[in-house]
Amino acid sequence: MLLNYFKMQNEAGTDEAGRGCLAGPVTAAAVILPKDFRNEVLNDSKQLSEHKRNELKPIIEADSTSFAVAHVYPSEIDKINILNASFLAMHRSLEQLGTMPEHIIVDGNRFNRYKEIPHTCIIKGDSKYLSIAAASVLAKTFRDAYMEKIHEEYPMYNWKKNKGYPTKEHRAAIQKYGVTPYHRKSFQLLAPTLTLEL
């Protein structure tokens, strides 16, 4: 069973989604959960089906003390690199919380300090702590919804299905149709044997 708090009750968990994608934003969420929050289904978003994630999203939104989600778009990713963009997305989500946390727990092993709030990085934190798992679900569901929306604009890339990840189908579409404003130009958009005019 996932744990509710790491150190203290007023604690925000944060996580991101979309870091390895070729298109679309990197999206982060921050979530503060009440001390009595329990959910037997909630886990790392990668361990859950799309159906389960979509079921959990309104529960997290309704039951959390505070939550926020933020995108960092490809133009910024290309300027500051994906690692810094991931940190920026997490900072922006923390900034939007209605309650200022006393402590932040972060999925992964690296983080840029946010204000003067102490933080702890936890490897596989999204499968250990409820607030990080909740953040992972919100980041994933909000990002997926965004990718499904822009799919309507560029259906040939099938973002509705691949969500911008580097599938063979996605790379083949880039080779055939070129890049869009939603693609990350600093990423290797094609396999090493192929070239693309940017």
What does this 3D model show about the protein?
The protein is of the alpha/beta class and 198 residues long. The protein has a single domain (11-150), classed as Nucleotidyltransferase, domain 5, CATH 3.30.420. 36% of the residues lie in helices and 15% in strands. It contains 6 helices and 5 strands, in the order ββαβααββααα. A 5-stranded mixed beta sheet has the order 3-2-1-4-5, sandwiched between helices. Strand 1 (11-17) and strand 2 form a beta hairpin. Helix 1 (50-63) crosses helix 4 and helix 2 packs across helix 3 (82-95). The longest helix is centred in the C-terminal third of the chain and has 22 residues, at 130-151. The mean pLDDT is 94.
